[in-house]
Protein 1
Amino acid sequence: TTLPVTWSSSNTAVATVSSSGTVTGVAAGTATITAKCGTLTATATVTVQKTPSIEMDPDFFYYGMNSVNGVKLHFSGWNRSGKVIHYYTLNFTYIDPVGNPAQDEIKGNTTVNLKCVGPVKDDGQLFVWQVVGYVPFCGGIRLNYIDLEYADGTKERVTYNLTTTRTERDAFRDSPF
């Protein structure tokens, strides 16, 4: 058209629109973008979704057992928050071979909070490779969530609800190395 087009957003806290019609997401939510040209009006609804702060598909997530029933957790994921993470706490549950919560034979717990120290820069790797408990009949681990504590003092919880029954032996057998 040769007539001017006026653009607007119903919720600029969610999405803004430039004078040329380019829409930019600001925060998670929904906004209606309106274009007016003379007596004509058109609208479009846009939905902005938040990008997860941590890559939701870990590079690796499996467990191993040592000779005294020690459960070794192996986890690696990536910081996608745009911030520096000072601490990250993995909350996970031991699972027995039939899928029920399994109990640590020393501490008596089924769910663990494992606090790890950063810093982990943006696009850096969160990493766990250590014995986390003693469970005689461990059949898997369920990663419930990861709590993040950022260098700027803010905190965030990233929910996973991801279970692995993949063992260290499986991971090494499938490795290309």
Protein 2
Amino acid sequence: MKQGTSLNTLAATLLRQAQAKRDYLVDTRALRFEAGAGGESKITLMAEEPESFQVNDFTHRQIADRLGIPARYFDMMREKNPELLGTNVNSWFAAKPEKRLLRTLDGEARAFLSDRYRRMDNAEVAEAVLPIISELPEAEVISCELTQTKMYIKVVNRRLQLDVRPGDTVQAGFVLSNSEVGAGSVRVEPLVFRLVCSNGLIVPDYGQKRYHVGRALEAEESQAIYRDETLAADDAAFLMKVQDTVRLAVDQAKFAHLVNRLRDAAGEPLSGNPVSAVELLANRHSLTQDESGGVLRHLVTGGDFSRYGLLNAVTRTSQEVADYDRATELERLGGKIMTLDTKEWRELSVAA
């Protein structure tokens, strides 16, 4: 499993960000977008006291998506003709006026969202869940990270373990993730941690999630907005459900079921051409050339040409990926391979 930051560093960063972040409900006609050289842009709230924020890559993409500007064309303007990009964006801000939630932090516009976006922030989620983790016998945070778009906390229960094969021991755990910027819901997903190689397998189909959708926000135009008492009460009730889900995430019966699925996978041979199987997997799940090469290398060196061997090759490759978000997606891909239906697995297993 890819290692991130320490839990203490994560907690300190969440606390600082909770104090520094600001949210604004804005009419797009009161926004001014300016694109500059080198792909840099800023967005300004045209209020009595204008405020400007740098626009990060993720927010650029949200603006393009919302305005219906194709990504390739948006990126080409951003690189080669920033003045044209500014004209395009500002024209559509005026022609299609609407209220949007602009989330900012440290002078950066980090999200451009619907006015119905339900704010469930990382500090709130972590504050609700970390005490529950400390109550679980032998629970250990083995990896955590705060990326530009998401927070991750990955936990293993050292007490709950079984063998897939003799000497191949796995332990039960879960992954808690959340996005403050519209990149995903609050999610609690089962994690299977393989001791022999420190691989983490996430099983997304078995998880719980909560989308960031609520009633429309209300505020004076271009003013900072804060959580009201009604939303706070609703969120408190939801976070109690998250706490209950975390307590059940290392359920022994559920873990035994997942291990049985892995045992079955160990008996399902990859009988075709391993190279073709990896190529087909790469095409279907948009693996890069480096990622597919890593999967093939670990499959061959592992010498386990089965469904279990293939999913372990994918999760082992995740440890070599620089980006933590992408590494987590590969851990989820391992879980997807485990749960492929008979038809999909056969297509992979007999690829010639």
Protein 3
Amino acid sequence: QTYLLIYRIPYSELGAWQRSNALRPMSALLIALFVLSIMSMLLTLSITRPLNRLRHAVHDLAHTSYHQEQLSQLAQRRDEFGVLASDFNTMGQRLQGLISNQRQLLRDVSHELRSPLARLQIALALAERGTEEQRRKLWPRLQRECERLDALIDEILTLARLDQVQTKQQSFAITPLLTKLIDDAALLQPNQIIAITGIKNLTYQGWPELLQRAIDNLLRNALRFNPAGLPIEVHITRQDNQL
């Protein structure tokens, strides 16, 4: 047997039911859009904030005021931004070191060039006022000072090309080196007495040009600030393997 069951719904109730069911997909769509917007905003902030930090770090590095602590927190991240921040810190530290070395090199160059230039000026002034015999005695000194200037400029150009120039150490006598420096100082201050005291006839393993330049700076400062009438003493002592 076949039965046909018919349930009649009034049009008002049917319309209300259709309207209520039609709002459900729209509500779900709006909720999905809201959630996606929040997630997109969070994802955007997670990308733009590290990029802004990197941009500020680049700006500071361009103005030579970069500090490694600016990206220390970002460098601790485990993602690609952390690796990038760590590499950027290494690069910034390297660049700051190069800038500092360049400034220090310029200061050292200006300081080192003063001594041979001053001796050249004094020797030239003496040669202009001296006799022919005195001029012949001054020519070797002038030539030696010019050779020192040429060697110093060559070393400066080498240091400008390389970060560090390593040369082999050599053994040399201390007393002849000091005697040579005292003779050069006598040209600047003929009336100043400079004496070598302590152990003599010693040899040293190192770089004679660098040691000569360091002691020459000390002697030049001593000649400038030493009271008149008092001698300058260069005292040599041995302490273990050092002088």
Protein 4
Amino acid sequence: PNYDRALKSVLFIGIGNPSESGTHLLYYFRQENRLTTNLFVHPHQLFVGTATAPRLVGGIEHIVFLDDFCGSGSQACKYSEQLLARILDINDKIRLSYYPLFATTVGVETVRTATHFTDVETLCELDSSFRALDPGSRYFREPYNGIDRDFALEMCRRHGSAIESQNPFGFGGCQLLLGFSHNIPDNTLPIFWSEGRPSYPWTPVFRRYTKGEGW
């Protein structure tokens, strides 16, 4: 009974553009949790009334923002900058939650300190040991014959600088080894997902679909 009552005051929104991965997640989240479609809305559906006297839809006490991944935290910060302020201007008591499935420790802390989200939690937090090439990397705790961390670091630096000059170790320097069935985060090492550039073409193991290109 308490669960059903709480659901009546909750709405779920995906982080980002409707064509991005955060909103892509909503379909599966709804299915797995056996939720009804009326609990999921676009941001503009939060507001009713007029432009000069906006109101939030009635009975809502909690808005949950879902995302598949939070790397540096910059996307969540940018997305929430104006929207959360607008919501809180109308109702400063409303609970605003940000729940990415996967997130780096740095990303989570960035969103917690730089946004108006009430709470920020992730299902799987990637600490600094997931930075593949750092001295504390979990991937090089045991030595491999012929491959060590210094070799991998130099290889990723050399090729990464040639194919993605501004982010040779992935966006935000995250150095991740992470991918999803629907896409590869740009925080992952670009030697795995980049197609390079005309002067330095590259054939990736897993192609990344960027936000600026069609399918």
